[in-house]
Structure of Molybdopterin molybdenumtransferase:
Amino acid sequence: MISVAEALERLFALVQPLAAETVPLAGCGGRVLAETVYAQRTQPPFAASAMDGYAVAGDVASGDVLTVIGEAAAGHAFDGVVGRGQAVRIFTGAPIPSGATRVVIQEDVERSGDTIALQDNLDSGGHIRPAGGDFSAGDPMIAPVRLGPAHVALAAAMNIPTLPVRRRPVVAIMATGDELCMPGEAPAADQIIASNNFGLKAMLEARGAEVRMLPIARDTEDALRLGFGLAKGADMIVTIGGASVGDHDLVGPVARDLGMDTSFYKIAMRPGKPLMAGKLGDQVMVGLPGNPVSALVCGQLFLCPMVDVMLGLPAAPPARRTAVLAADLGANGPREHYMRAVVADGQITAAGSQDSSLLTVLAGANALLIRPVGDGPRAAGETVEYIAI
Ligand SMILES: Nc1nc2c(c(=O)[nH]1)N[C@H]1C(S)=C(S)[C@@H](COP(=O)(O)OP(=O)(O)OC[C@H]3O[C@@H](n4cnc5c(N)ncnc54)[C@H](O)[C@@H]3O)O[C@H]1N2
Ligand code: MOO
């Protein structure tokens, strides 16, 4: 059995960044920028008022009385020049008129007809946003980056109407097993509802993949072959279940029969031991264990980072953080253990049951507490590593 770190390295070797495509800005949220783009203009393009008030020239002081000679609003510049003793009524976002050196906010002014009197306790702020204070024409937005709301808004402000983004990886998910039926169907007494495929779909779509959910494949070679056939065209095929050593665990044999070039089978990890991976033609094949927690933890640890690589992001394991143990933990065995746990206020508490079938426990967890292979007993108060989920 290989280690978790070795498995991730081998999985990274199976994937590469996909091609870029040009997408209108309105569809770019959550996509990954494929090439660095450059601002087409300067922002703000002119010195602009940060407040509603009066633009004035030179030093002014409480008690000064100034003549209002015009108005500047956002989208409506004042064409003239402001001289000493003069003021221009101005609104937030308007260009600062020539000659003006500061904006006095309207709360500090008493207006009477065409004159204003500056009141006591005048603030000292200029309230002017300099031209280019945010960015200048030619400034880069550097790739790769996952485009959040602020990046999309920044690209819009830079006057870039379309962006080069990575094509979404297409992932075909195939749940396998005679015991499975779909949510909403009427299960027989010896059946359960397929859940892992739904959880993985939600997880991978949130990560930027396009997920094709294949029909449930029964535990027969023919059904699995049909499933692999339906997965044609996907960048990655993910099977769930049938990965272990039982008589009905046929995924490995069928995939190998179809020509899978196996990278590895079985890892020293709990949950997730019977993980398998390889290449089926130009498709990546990952066989996940069937236990729901095993499948979803493997999704988090392996599939998400693989999707990142296909999106052109760096190949990196999930980020580790540290927290203080809230209670003692027994020694760990020969597999790296990813324990379902809750982190709150810097303290981490492992769930009482770590059975890999318990979705309620996983749904209640916000962390996977990492126990290294052969780690000894740990006492409350010791610092441990975890992955936020
Ligand atoms: N003799 C051994 N038995 C087992 C071993 C072993 O090393 N020796 N490993 C155990 C471990 S660890 C795991 S994990 C499981 C993985 O087995 P499979 O990948 O073959 O999964 P199945 O047997 O098909 O299913 C296991 C479990 O999960 C349920 N399941 C499957 N698919 C779904 C789905 N899409 N949604 C919800 N639940 C699903 C299935 O009904 C089973 O209850 O093997 C151990 N056995
Ligand atoms: O590895 Mo299994 O995934 O322990 O339940």
In short: The first helix runs from residue 4 to 12. The domain at 20-43+133-166 is CATH 3.90.105.10 (Molybdopterin biosynthesis moea protein, domain 2).
